[in-house]
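Co-fold these.
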Amino acid sequence: MADYQAPITDLSFLLEHLIKADQLWPQLGLHDADPETAKAILEEAAKLCEQVIAPLNREADETGTHLTAGKVVVPDGFNEAYSAYCEGGWGALGGDAQYGGMGMPKTLVACVEEMLQGACMAFGLAPMLTAGACLALNAHGSDNLKERFLPNMYTGQWAGAMDLTEPHAGTDLGLIRTKAVPLEQNMLGEALYAVTGTKIFITWGEHDMAENIVHLVLAKLPNAPAGSKGISLFLVPKHLPNEDGSLGARNTVSCGALEKKMGIKSSATCVMNFEEAKGWLVGEPHKGLAAMFTMMNYERLTVGIQAVAVAQASYQSARDYASERLQSRSLSGAQFPDDPADPIIVHPDVRRMLMHMRSFNEASRAFYLYVAQYLDIAKYSQDDKTKSQAEGRIALLTPVAKAFMSDMALSAAIEGQQVFGGHGYIREWGQEQYVRDIRITQIYEGTNGIQALDLLGRKVIANKAVILNDYCSEILHFVQHDLSGEWQKEGAKLVECIHEVTALAQELIARAGKSPDVIGASAVDFLHALGLVSYGYLWLKMAHSTEHIQSGGVASEGAYSAEFLAAKQYLCRYFLNRELPRVSFLAERIRSHSDDLMVMPASHF
Amino acid sequence: MADYQAPITDLSFLLEHLIKADQLWPQLGLHDADPETAKAILEEAAKLCEQVIAPLNREADETGTHLTAGKVVVPDGFNEAYSAYCEGGWGALGGDAQYGGMGMPKTLVACVEEMLQGACMAFGLAPMLTAGACLALNAHGSDNLKERFLPNMYTGQWAGAMDLTEPHAGTDLGLIRTKAVPLEQNMLGEALYAVTGTKIFITWGEHDMAENIVHLVLAKLPNAPAGSKGISLFLVPKHLPNEDGSLGARNTVSCGALEKKMGIKSSATCVMNFEEAKGWLVGEPHKGLAAMFTMMNYERLTVGIQAVAVAQASYQSARDYASERLQSRSLSGAQFPDDPADPIIVHPDVRRMLMHMRSFNEASRAFYLYVAQYLDIAKYSQDDKTKSQAEGRIALLTPVAKAFMSDMALSAAIEGQQVFGGHGYIREWGQEQYVRDIRITQIYEGTNGIQALDLLGRKVIANKAVILNDYCSEILHFVQHDLSGEWQKEGAKLVECIHEVTALAQELIARAGKSPDVIGASAVDFLHALGLVSYGYLWLKMAHSTEHIQSGGVASEGAYSAEFLAAKQYLCRYFLNRELPRVSFLAERIRSHSDDLMVMPASHF
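Predicted complex below.
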């Protein structure tokens, strides 16, 4: 397998030309985040990821994590990598400056996330979960809790974990049984609760890489309303801190078992037992689910980032293998007659797989940065209209980012494995691990089916497609007004697809009024259609920018090689010709007789 | 995970109504294979597979195989299962009666293969490789070699292995380096050779389940022509038999290592070292590749069967889970208000996944039997024209069976895992193993990309689509003449797609004449289009038969429940509405500017 190479050039290109960070960041008052600082951050992160973390990935998958006497034993190198991550201050990158964070924009943090996840996703989950817990705590915790916990979490000295799922309650969290009983006792100046229950699928719920783990736990207060409106959020640390901030008594939180999984084997997926464990309420009683959802948009985007990060690693190896592996001759005649065979990259079918991978990977990267810019705008903009538009975009595009990016990443990684032929199936070559690792991104943080329902039901139909139409107008405007002659011609394919998607939305609004099952029957196809047009849009934006650079329209001082710029244009055409047309098929399927899914009685399955 | 249930009802339905075995077998002079015998064979095979083999599958994946002091240690239960398989005479089922085989038709053998592979694919590979070796030996070996080896291989006392690949030679076998040097010595009455070289990816190349292993090895004779025209086939047994048939000296064949793989972990994938190992030539010198290809059609079909077999196991578990797992409420209102939630099968998106799986699995089963019938006809028919048509169908449809069935099986198994949500990612539930196991079927026995090239280049373009058009005429004739009113209307969708496929073939013939890369650029899409129309055809045939049964047109004596018959019709409509329309997308892609794959210089990747 190839050494992981952080995609710094592409990230810089996107920050500069897609996001136009040099304008966006100052507009939002983010004066610490200038392009020079960003460049230094990307380069430092790349060093850590390439040199310290990525070399652990393959072997750690073989070792896995183990539970010994209640302790999680991590693979060799993880403790050192975690220390290096913390010492570099990376846990603080996106954190709130008030509590010791660096307050960097998501558009920059996301780039670092891709590198970290691409280097070793199983390891990367630990900082990711900590960052998620920090977001939720920062948004809903009392100032007191934030002061006591956030600074230690930003340094990574204390890690975070999210404890939601129970054996019988996954998608449907309203069914959880974990209880929180108020104690007649205060600690650290706040009312204390005793939390009891069992949680499953708790990523990095237990480990010793950090000296403490801060669990954010969903539980029900006595007499809580039934269902999802009766869920509250609690902070339950592994070690209770003392009043002076030092580490105190061990709390009654323990790891009962580790799951054996398909992939991300070197991450610990814990069964966590809470036995009257002490904790504090975060936010309002019974508003726990809403509190979790505040950070969901960030977490879901990061899951999409994980997926493309790993698919990119798969691409790098597949590209190198295709350039080196000699096998058979080109159908148009030997290309390297002095060698025993041609490198397989001469075969159109191998190129098809590589271009498929790359066209989705690079569009996914552009897409997560496109969505991340709205997270920054929504958080930092002072203008209500701008803010509100950004919130709409986030609502609409987050489920697409999570589900479409992960679906496309899986298919990319499957191609990346296929390029290797038989060697792709052998663990030592690394390609099959990428498939196994990516597979979870389609499942956790809300399955992709749930993302699709969220998109079509809540984000499109519920608001009568207002947000969708606003987004599509932006795309149409770009194609029709910003593109030059040749690209405008290419863009005509996208325009057709945009009209298709907006028309579908109207039809679905009408049909769903009569039969709500229409939403479930069409949701995944609709999400994929919106994903495809979004990627078509971003490819045209990228191609447009490269043309602008080539024509000397911007002084990039040779930052991008001629190959890099030309490749964007080749890939844009490839995507519009070969991938975008899938929209018509999806439209036909959505318009097909959707009863076909519902009429067969359950007993016939 | 659900206990594996052999799909006997569906197999019986297809043998009776699709293949019309009661007419086909006697026509071919296969008088031992009557419907009663077939029924008894299916039931006995089902017992063995359900009760003895399937229970080993999950645990064996965890245990894997291990190499200890040159010996392959197999998981618990494998030795006993192998003995039970042999004692039942299953290894002889399709074997040549002249050497102790039962001479049963492939249409029946294929049904048993599905059960075996569905029960435990890693185990099933051992009998499968033996059967393949028997076919090649029977077709090309001398009578002397056949008499000495085949009877012991049919009993399973001796197993078989196929030794083709070398580290630098996979798809391109012309590059192999293994040498065979004639010895001035005879053994068992035939000239002896010394075979030296290293082979990789040798499935069940070493184990002790059988007392001997018969390797069929590709090697080059001294002064062999370069490339694939200089390859010969040798029989190299692990133990050299004595003149009296008893087991003699150990040959210098040894297993150097086992590969660690993504799946089929309990099968042994061996690096085999041959050090002047003694063996005999099978067939003509330098005609080894052709000898291997005789059995390729059988083996490739069996790989497709493996894929659907495992996808069927995945479906069974997913269906059961969807009926039992309570989570959330139906969008149309609670269906089981007394339960804490509805079973997830009420959700359209879960049904979409289940119907997707089942519509492909059942069409795949019909398809492998449809192809198997031509293998029987080609082998046993006395009529030259019938035989030659059958050979055409086999040539055309074998690559589709191998590649389309395995591609669709992977996507089915991914859905089957998705139905389980988070539990689908946990090994103990079994769903993720199916994905890992199926994945190899897209790779081995010629990658699916190679199958597609074979289809489009050799089987369609080279004969100017004569075979394809003959096949498509059969489909058109069926839809237009055999279908009744309502189904004829449904069939109109298929007619359109058939015209699309035949038109594409003509366009590709014309384009390939100018640019051979067009073949590689279009092959996979074309194969998928042909797969889809084939499945549409078989769904209509199945629906048509069920209608015939329902109307009392045949006396099936209640063999098929009303649910079974109705489900076929629901699934047929589902397939035509939701899956078949993909053909237009594939057509658009094939017609797109195919240079987009070739114009980007290799340095830009």
